[in-house]
């Protein structure tokens, strides 16, 4: 993940206060993203978090039984839970979005996406991904056209994005989208987590582990400020 600036953090807090809190008290915010070398450990999902066919689920269960919980072939478990629709899966998938922010209020826990209303390549990717789930009879030539349109729009938007000032300089173009949102009671606790053999450099990334009431947990990457906001000061 790209380490957010204090100006971006201020923009998120301001937008949340004006457009999303709905009477809640804002307790903490943190820029967040997926961990490096991620691996899912959830029945029904493969290591990348994609849905498995029935046969694959049997193989998944066997591998989970014989492999350790962490650091398998250089990978770390990012999500674990009892089923594919558990809260940790929803939280982690939301954190994979660009410009994602973990937000805790007096009554809610959410992952919000800071969106640029002048253009967002993330939305274009979502539209194209949705088209892949259409019936096979609909895809064919139409699918190729959609893919070509997606590539063209993405390239054009990438050029425009480079030329545009940052969102902090044009807050009127910024909006927050809730990619994941549950009641505060669903979050049991937030712990710090450190990948094996990875030192905590002074200005390097930090990691959090969110435990949910359904028995699932997800690990997210953040920065020093985000880790302090969510889990308190760092101990030696």
Topology:
Elements: H1 6-20, E1 26-32, E2 38-41, H2 54-66, E3 76-80, H3 87-95, E4 100-105, E5 108-116, H4 121-131, H5 140-163, E6 174-183, E7 187-192, E8 206-212, E9 217-222, H6 224-231
Parallel strand pairs: 2-3
Antiparallel strand pairs: 1-4, 3-9, 4-5, 5-6, 7-8, 8-9
Task: Characterize the structure shown.
With 236 residues, the chain is of the alpha+beta class. The protein contains six helices and nine strands, in the order αββαβαββααββββα. It has one domain (6-51, 74-118, 142-231): Roll (PH-domain like), CATH 2.30.29. Strand 2, helix 2 and strand 3 form a beta-alpha-beta unit. The two termini are 25 Å apart. The model has no long low-confidence stretch (mean pLDDT 84).
Annotation keywords:
236 residues; alpha+beta; PH-domain like; five-stranded mixed beta sheet; four-stranded antiparallel beta sheet; 9 strands; 25% strand
CATH topology term? PH-domain like
* Shape by Cα distribution: globular
For this structure, what is the CATH class? Mainly Beta
Count of individual helical segments: 6
- Report how far apart the termini are: 25 Å
Which CATH architecture is right? Roll
Kindly report the spatial arrangement of strands forming the biggest sheet: 2-3-9-8-7
Give the percentage of residues in beta strands. Answer: 25-35%
Largest beta-sheet details? 5 strands, mixed
Strand segment count: 9
CATH superfamily: Pleckstrin-homology domain (PH domain)/Phosphotyrosine-binding domain (PTB)
Contiguous uncertain segments of 5+ residues: none
Mean pLDDT: 84
In total, the number of domains comes to 1
Task: Assign the structural class, choosing from mainly alpha, mainly beta, alpha/beta, alpha+beta, or little secondary structure.
Answer: alpha+beta
């Amino acid at each position: 993940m790209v380490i957010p600036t204090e100006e971006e953090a201020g923009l998120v807090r301001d937008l949340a206060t004006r457009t999303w809190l709905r009477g809640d008290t804002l307790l903490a915010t943190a820029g967040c993203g997926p961990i490096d070398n991620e691996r899912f450990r959830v029945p029904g999902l493969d290591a990348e978090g994609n849905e498995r066919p029935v046969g694959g689920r049997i193989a998944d269960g066997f591998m989970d039984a014989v492999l350790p919980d962490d650091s398998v072939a250089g990978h770390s478990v990012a999500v674990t839970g009892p089923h594919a629709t558990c809260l940790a899966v929803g939280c982690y998938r939301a954190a994979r979005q660009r410009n994602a922010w973990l937000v805790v209020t007096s009554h809610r826990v959410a992952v919000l996406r800071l969106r640029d209303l002048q253009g967002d390549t993330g939305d274009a990717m979502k539209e194209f991904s949705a088209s892949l789930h259409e019936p096979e009879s609909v895809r064919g030539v139409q699918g190729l056209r959609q893919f070509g349109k997606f590539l063209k729009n993405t390239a054009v938007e990438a050029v425009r994005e480079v030329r545009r000032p940052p969102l902090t300089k044009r807050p009127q173009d910024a909006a927050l989208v809730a990619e994941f949102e549950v009641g505060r009671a669903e979050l049991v606790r937030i712990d710090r987590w450190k990948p094996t053999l990875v030192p905590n450099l002074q200005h390097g990334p930090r990691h959090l582990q969110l435990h949910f009431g359904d028995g699932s947990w997800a690990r997210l990457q953040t920065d020093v400020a985000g880790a302090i906001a969510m889990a308190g000061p760092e101990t030696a």
